Amino acid sequence: MIYIKENAIFIADAHENENRRGFWEFLQALKNKKIQTPQLFLMGDIFDLLIYEIKATHQFAMPYIQLLEQLADDIEIIYLEGNHDFNLAKFFNKVKVYSIKEQPLLCQFQNLAQTKAKIAHGDIFLKPFLQFALKSLRNHYLLCFLNFLNTLCKGKITQKILLNQNKKQLIRKIPNFTSLAKERLRYYNTSFVIEGHYHQDVFLDFEDIKYLNLATFAYKESFFIVKYKPEIRFHKIELKEA
Fold first, then answer.
1. Euclidean distance between the first and final Cα of the chain, in Å?
2. Distance between CA atoms of 210 and 225, rounded to whole angstroms?
């Protein structure tokens, strides 16, 4: 069981790349104690592209990986894989990595024995074909073959993916998102759900369940700090305010 501590930080969808370095600045602020937390939840899609089998994605991410491992000496770091960053376990020794198969991850709010939460990147409980496609893309042997093709064409496949990601619109309000969230919640069977993936930055309080969809860090470098008084709150701040 993972216990969510007071002042824990949640970050989702940083989509870090060569042209977007906000997450690196955040990690530096942690390293320099400008930002302090006992616990860091990385809720997936922290990188635009990071896959263990795809060697061309390693060089950019390696300084981040090394710094995360260094920070994990003092901070409990939980990394939930997303649909842009997966098969990550072999990168880390101290950071706790949870694959899509291990999501949603059951947690408990510290000192609140009756209040549990399930957290996930958000790319689960999708339509069957899409769910199958996302899981298939994580296949080790398929990825090794794609790495071979990418090496053969001198990295053009990964370059094309990253170029497309750079053009991607990160903020888009999803029509009827409340209905979509409510439909998804029937799969969770808990009183509190936290997801990323959708970039909606909304908190929904249904009759028997609370749902938080985190803001994308990549947009305004927003992250969330857990507070317990007078009730459970996820206080959003921007990196420039920290």
1. 30
2. 17
